[in-house]
């Protein structure tokens, strides 16, 4: 409330970044990122069961553990603002759970494509938003999006599989497209529900055309990531 | 091989600690601890599904993530010795998987008692062994056994449940006893299979009487932990 009105009045507005540190959408941004980390943790831990090797299971457990480190960063950033992370995350549970339910991998390769492609989509979206945030807020966002070296493991496994099998490649290509489509669907659902977060995204991108341009850039990056995987 | 023969010759034997850093059982000790961390990670992630609240799920995800930090410490300690962690862990997979399969919790409270009591049993056993290890090796063991603050969460939840229900208390008391029994069964199985690790444990405890005395002390500590939980 205090933060909201001071943002509305432009108090503590940093002229070099369009979005003030106390914009109320920042809390929602941290919260959606935080629930994203939790749900990624449990998905990774669950999907690791599909791994044919202990080496694969351990690589995935390390990725899951990195998600929890990110969660702790966001929990602390919210606590600094006097916000309880559990209260803040509640409005985002449904959309993120729906994304994961609609993209439930049935094979280890689908899991791995999802780790890689899903992380990339999130990093593109939040990375662009970060450019418009005040330095302290942007630092938190960039910290939790930092790519881990574990994704190299994914690239190698997927490239090997698709170079050996045309039908695998076709299946995973469709799978990758579906991941992007579902992610955009859920992002739109969240934006329709959460005014403050939407205001933050609109401010970061300029206007509705800016959002459309952002989604186009995300599609280009997605295509490049798919190419890296050989699909 | 090199490490093995120099240990046999007493080379680099530290007179202040009965077990030289290059005792071949040290590699096995690190390996069994490493696989213990991996299996604990996956058990925690799996059992967290039983949690009735997101707060509980997150507390467990943090515990799981701490297990992976410990795994990385052990992986690095083995790498320093020129040992691949996956090769080293292989002989211990069966016994640890058997322990977890025979103590599969059916409720969230059973899970939480298992986290707390299982961690305590392991910490007692390895902590006593650590006292006989050379300082560098002991430091690794103590580091990965360090208790986390998350177990406070477990104590509160269990105490609340058992003070409210006598039948819960009776069930969990039996459950706690079974955990100790299964842990000792699997420890004996491992010792019967792994000569180098057994030699290390015998050296640390003095002799077979020393091992028996260690198991008695573990039973005392176990009873104290059960009392802390109110069972």
From TrEMBL, chains A, B:
One of the Pfam families matching this protein, by short name: MiaE_2
InterPro entries given in the database record: Ferritin-like, Ferritin-like_SF, Ferritin_actino
Domain of life: Bacteria
Stored Gene3D superfamilies: 1.20.1260.10
Ferritin-like domain residues: 25-202
Protein name, entry field: Ferritin-like fold-containing protein
Source species taxonomy: Bacteria, Bacillati, Actinomycetota, Actinomycetes, Mycobacteriales
